[in-house]
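During the reporting period the student researcher (J.K.) took over the structure-prediction task from the postdoctoral fellow and processed the backlog of single-chain submissions. One of the processed entries is reproduced below for the supervisory committee.
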Amino acid sequence: ASMLRLSLQRLASATAGCCVPRRLFSDAVVDSVVERALTQAKLSKSGKRAEVLASMLRSPFAAAAPPASTGDVKTEFTPAQISSIATALARDPECNSQESRLRVANLFRVAADQGDNTAKYNFASLLLSANQSIELALPHLLDLARHGHAASQFHLARLYEHGHGVTRSIKHAVELYKLSGQGGVAQGWTSAGILLRNVADSSKSNSSSSSGSNSNNKQAAVSSEQAAQYAEAVALFEKAVAAGDPNAHVSLAHMYTRGLGVPMDPAKAFHHNEVAAKSGLPIALHNLGTHYFTGKGCKQDYVEAARYFALAADKGFVHAQVNLGNMYATGRGVAKDLARAEHYYRLAADADPSAKGLLAKLQAEMKGQTGSEAESQKS
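J.K. obtained the following structure tokens:
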């Protein structure tokens, strides 16, 4: 924890004074957008107030200095009111472009500079969502994270996990994810568990490669350190499940499927995927289809397998599209339909090289059938 605090302090001092490019906002929509924002914030729409906000929104975003109209905004509104107005603007359908989001960021910045924590977080989030300089968002995330703001801790953990704007550190990412989980962000527990599981998986893979272990072994040996990492990951997933994160059910199912940190138990894996599927998660729907197809953890049922693969495929889950294509190509669980098989292979082909091969093979088969039918008609 002390190392993390030191790292945060260093980052805070290193990220002062960073800049982002200027963007333009359409003047044509400013007046109507301002009026709607004041209404949603339940504030009077006096000419002066509307004029001040319109001037603010017409000012280009610049990191070096706030717009000239900042002083007028401070005079007319409290920091909390500015934050409310900016929130309303951020949700307005006409403020959905990168340029307009940066103009809204001007307002969040005014409130953030006056100490409004909600504005600090929203300012940083807006910059990140607009693909602007991470360095400009960092000081606010760092400040809020140090003071226990769970959502900021979660965002900061993601930056550490991927090395965006900071030196990549899985250790810091795990710590921050856990802190966000303690603060009420259920997904923080899940993300921390996934990182720990990935670290253990990577260590196990490296150990297998270096020792030249037999590839026929079902599972490489697990060191005591890796076993502890898997066990902690399971504990974190269980916390996330208790906190209501459906993604944690998928992660727990994975652990029960592979026997990592818990005894291998296909029935429990099926249960957790079934719970997650009720939330509509594509991966959970696909996993349920796999359970029914293989009969692991449940009674084998090709019809149910096809149904769940179809639900996941309709949500764009590539593996489900391939599997459903296979079922239509072979007639398992559905009536054999090569045209439908071709449809699902085609959907998956851009993202899955194996689908391209299956598609080419199927099209050759369909072409051959067409040729045979034509020859039959001639004879």
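The committee noted the following: The longest helix spans residues 186-211.
J.K. will present the remaining backlog at the next meeting.
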